[in-house]
Amino acid sequence: MSTSQIEISAPVSENTKATLLLTAPLIVGRGENSKELLTASEYAKLARFLFNKGCQPADLIAAGASELVVELSKIVNSDRLKRLIDRGFLLSQAIERWQARAIWVVSRSDEDYPRLLKERLKDIAPPVLYGCGDSAILNNGGLAVVGSRNADPDTLNSATRIGELAARAQRTIISGGARGIDQAAMSGALEAGGDAAGVLADSLERAVLNRDHRNYLRDGRLVLLSPYDPQAGFNIGNAMQRNKFIYALADAALVVKADYGKGGTWAGAVEQLDKLRLVPVYLLPTAQQDAALEALGKKGALTWPNPTTPEEFSEALAARISSSDTEQLLFSAGNGNQPDDTPELSDTSSQTHTVSLPPDEQLFSTVRMLLEQLDTPKTDQEIANELKVTKGQARDWIKRLVKEGVLEKLSGPTRYRSAKSSKLF
Amino acid sequence: MTDDCGCDIFKLMLYNSSRALQLLRLGSGLENATFREGQEEAIRHIVEGRGRLLVVQRTGWGKSFVYFIAAKLLREQGYGPALLISPLLALMRNQLLAAQRMGVRAATINSDNPDEWESIERAIINNEVDIILVSPERLANERFQAQVLSRVAARVALLVIDEAHCISDWGHDFRPHYRLIERILRALPPNLRLLATTATANDRVMDDLRVVLGPHLDVLRGDLNRPSLLLQTIRLPTPEERMAWLAEQLPNLPGSGIIYTLTVRDANRLSDWLKSRGINVESYTGQTGDGRDELEQRLLDNKVKALVATTALGMGFDKPDLAFVIHYQTPGSVVAYYQQVGRAGRALESAYGVLLSGQEDTDVIDYFIETAFPTQEEAEQVLNALDKEVSGLSVPGLMERLNISYSRIQKTIDLLSLESPAPIVKEGTKWVLTTTTLSEEFWKRAERLIELRRNERDQMQEYVGLSSGHMDFLIRALDGESKEGRSASLSLLPTTVDAQLVHAAIEFLRGSSLSIEPRKQWPSGGMPAYGLKGKIHAEHLAEPGKALCMWGDAGWGRLVQKGKYVDKRFSDELVKACADLVRAWNPQPAPTWVTCIPSLRHPHLVPDFARKLSAELGLPFQNAIVKTEVRPEQKTMANSTQQARNVDGSLDVIDQPLLTGPVLLVDDMVDSRWTLTVAAWLLRTNGAGEVWPLALAFTGNA
User: Fold this and answer.
1) pTM for this entry
2) Number of cross-chain residue pairs from A and B with Cβ atoms under 8 Å apart
3) Which among A363, A377, B159, B464 has most CB atoms closer than 10 A?
């Protein structure tokens, strides 16, 4: 190292550079967007291919990676791939633009990538995330508040109160940063001294320069992030898509107001209740009958218990999705989502949640994380099968987790399940 | 990483050796030309994409052949254009001619040719350009990035960073805009071809470059030794002594050369002096404009004895038979000096490198050092002003709110915006705050650089004091390997000066007046008290005026200073000098009366002088203007907008009828010109004819 001190300000990782080259529009001006960007599913395929080969995205941009490009032609046409990864100068321009504005960018293999998004969304977690502010907030969970842009003053007021209560309970409000309910809940939290996270569907760049956000971002109480280019404009598809990210970052979600059968709030809640089932979904009760709330209730949404103290608030956030739903999410057979099948894209990726542990402990902590969510009792053989390890190995882990109180042993045939589930139900 | 996954490095055999040689021969115009040591190696390295390359070779080695040929070979393989970033595009004409002969289509985009941007842009998009040349300042320009560069950025196949030592904090020539390049380099993926070039890099600079360019940097480095140079240092304290020395010695020197000055004003004045002594010289500065090509050509063709130049004639200028480089003042660092003096005698048996050192050198260098960074207070004021605005402020907006000069505001803005992450960014025409606070590191870096500059200045003073071993000293200072021995075919130049020539130089300095250009526009925001704004009506403008001298300068400057602050009256010698100036100037229509700018602080100083001058000129005097209000002195107002506001409403004409006809308007000092502008407007709107301003001294940076 030289005696000079050219400081390195949050360098963008090589894997992230590669992922950006492959998937990101890299908007720096009026240049036309490449029409050749990899789609989410193309990128997922390519990532899986690299993973199986023992490579990572960064290998694509190492000097002289032509052979890898040729090998990948089964997935992506080589010329197209080359044109994408040859956008290096454009990439440098884009990164420079973001960094000047204190916008960070991370990809799934980075340590700073929000753990919850990766764990919960797996392949559909956004390949890159842009953001500003303290990304550590994103690992704290909290309450997702979603709702319509057009809400009456009373409803807006309720959203603000909920934000304030979250602040008092020292829990984060996660929302979409949009006009209406989103902003009411977030500013309720921020003005009461709490934390908030905004998952934006567009114009991150403009949002981070907004005078109202500046101090909160600077003080590390607000984080804004987006899976879309910081200069991307409004796009209805993106606005719909980002709902799942709001849910995925939370411990529980609250639908403040939805329009029956239309709009992002409705679609996002339905997707959550019918398909993703990442977190419990609450509904804010209304004085009048509300078709949207009624329909969502039928889909399994819970009624917001209207907590008034920080303790009650935290209790509401500790709710869990009913066990039958969870079973579908984890350990279900044949949906291709077994944990060992998920490409982990970097040598550091398994450290995301246990940064400084030795490898054996990292492995164990992953096992712990998985089995913590085992709500349906299973035998040691079944668990071994799911994890694709020997029964002996599975037993070692189970024994340790029972000792730790993570799993509880059921008799009858001997089966195991998460100790948490019994406490709640 | 690559090795672990077993992805072998697969080399496409892109490099075509015979084609490269063919291009060299086309470019050089020499049928039998062969590559210089290292050139072909560098071209091959780039074309084959073997990773980042730094070439350290003296100017004239042929770096431009490396990137032009590499760019051409890549284009012939179907790659996108190359992008060259250089601070010295204006000096690349010779290289561009060579490129043209090779069939390399080069396009220069800089602030001088916005009219051509669209056609260049079209050509780039139509794939008709092989190499794009831009300056770092242009690269940093928001509008340029958005409108032009973004259209081609995705296809750039090779990035060339010229004068890469500018990236380094330790480089003598550290340029703020290279901080942007530093960051772009960090953000670049390793697969983009990158060539960095420089002529000089000491160990510290090299260390910095390795940090920025990456651990896998390959370096190609040439030899620093210049045995053909005869180096000499001569101390001559006053400008007039150095002027006399040059007037005497220049005609005796063989061939053509360069005389370097530290400031534009010195270049112009010295060139005028030498011309007045019948020596064939021209001045060449950043303000020379379009004539620069022609001047360079005249020097290349030995049709001029010397160009008297600032560093604007710098890196990249290549004249192998340059016979001498003389410094009129001491440059700020050994690296800068070596680069400049090293231009002499590249292809000659022997050449002179003479450093004249004056009393004022360190003052000028210190001024450059002290003003290179904004003060903490300036930065705070700018940041606070921006914090108060919802949508930010433009530079004129800042000038209205802050008593900081335009150039200081601009410097503050420049340096703050080049931080990363930056505390301010430009959105459209306005600067806005980001979430980033200005780091302590910024001030530490500023301190460190100021300290470094001082050490460099001291090292140059050490050099000035040498009686022998000059080349040895330079090479050791540059961390090169020194070798003994130099050509003995030249002898040292005399160190004495002719007393008569010194006297003539003083007379010359006293005879060189300065012009005062009239202001044509009221300040942004107007002059509310007078109800004036926008363009100044053509009939209310002042005419172009004259200042006898520069404040504090050799010549009359010191006498003016003494009159103002010591004697409290301007001497008869100055009255006579001004009368001579008016007679020589002979403005038409000639003034028929004299008036002056009033002052409540020194009510007699200027009127007495103006009255004496009017008597000397045989014209009537009238105290036509009155000061109606005490205001702070103009010199305490730091920028033009503040100075204009400070004059606004403070002057009026007397209640009696004014004398008629064209008038000579006298003041002692002129700086922002707002007082003269307002006085001229008052006189014209009250019936006076043409207003001819005359001041004793120009202050400020005219």
Assistant:
1) 0.73
2) 196
3) B159
